[in-house]
Amino acid sequence: MLLSLVAYLSILLFVGLSIYKACQLAKLPMHGRMDLYPVPKEKGYEHGGSYYEEVSWWSKPREVSHITEIVEMLKEILFIKKLFENQRPFWWLSYALHLGIYFLMAWTILLVVGAISVLDGVLVAANSQSIWGLIIYYLTFVTGILGLILATLGSGLLIVRRLFDNTLKKYTTPQEYFNLSLIFVTLITGILAWGTDPSFQTAREMTAKLVTFTSFPADSLVTLNVILVGIMLTYIPISKMSHYVGKYFTFHTVLWDNSPNLKGSAIEQKVKQATSYRPATSWSAPHIKAASKPKE
What we know:
Layout: H1 2-26, H2 66-79, H3 81-86, H4 88-119, H5 131-164, H6 166-171, H7 174-194, H8 201-211, H9 220-235, H10 243-255, H11 266-275
Helix pairs in contact: 1-9, 4-5, 4-8, 5-7, 7-9
């Protein structure tokens, strides 16, 4: 029952902390707007230029396509586009890790779907007479194997690359080594725990127990893997690895937020609010002064 509690609690904490972090990011003051062009959401200027280049732009309607913006975001989120374009050798390792994680996410969902199917009387196996059972079985097999291999190779090789690349080594903090090591060790224990059963029948049975809130027996390797996964799920939202939450805000409210600052607009109010903000810590820049403490 202890492992069940670890699994439930870690999933709740992962979701809850991720939502909390997103809410905190949404409440931040207006960022220093970079307005890096082209801005994908500007219709007619996707490949360069801007609405602001038009004569008397303030008197003309501004066409915005949020679909285009979302498509560009997905290119970065799913394929790490900027790293591919600017640092191709490093992209192969980073994308192996990220793609492996995406496969493992799909694998987890398929385990849940397979467990529910089994509970509903559908045989999920290579010899199943059900088309649905066969599809779930082979998709679980492919995503699980690819996910474990790619994510393990990616995290392991990223550690090696950061250790021996003289440039990367200068900018790699102890926390980043810890983050990659935690992922790598968790994946290794996962391979040892589930690799002997490539059909993932045991994992599916355990998932069925979790879905029905039933305790299940587990050997030492499975226990260690479940605990490490629980630690990782809880740690990710409060660490640097929570960039999956910040991607939307980075693009939508920093890089591509070029809404006009017109008199009486919501942007004007945000700008006024942002300019009234004073940092609590001191800066070396002469034009930035820390807010003075009120006299008692």
